[in-house]
Amino acid sequence: MNEARTGEVIYKKYCANCHQGSIPRSPVLGKQADWTDRVEKGRAALIENVRVGIPPEMPKMGSCRNCTDEELGNAVDYMLAALEEEETEEETE
Question: CA–CA separation, 34 vs 29, rounded Å?
């Protein structure tokens, strides 16, 4: 069995185009204000949103038709970790 791709790999290939600010209402990677309401729903809900999509903006599976559930989770974890990095940077300023 193949090893799951990392969240960073999945993010850069399938998620970055939308989550860098090019799509209105798409939460920007690392931008706390964009993610607050979403994070409150929990990790499982975020993964499910990726899996089933959120029409019309968020495509099913985030356009990664060959991603496993583990890989989708890895991508979500990568994006959540970016929020933690933003908090740490704000605390040190």
Answer: 9
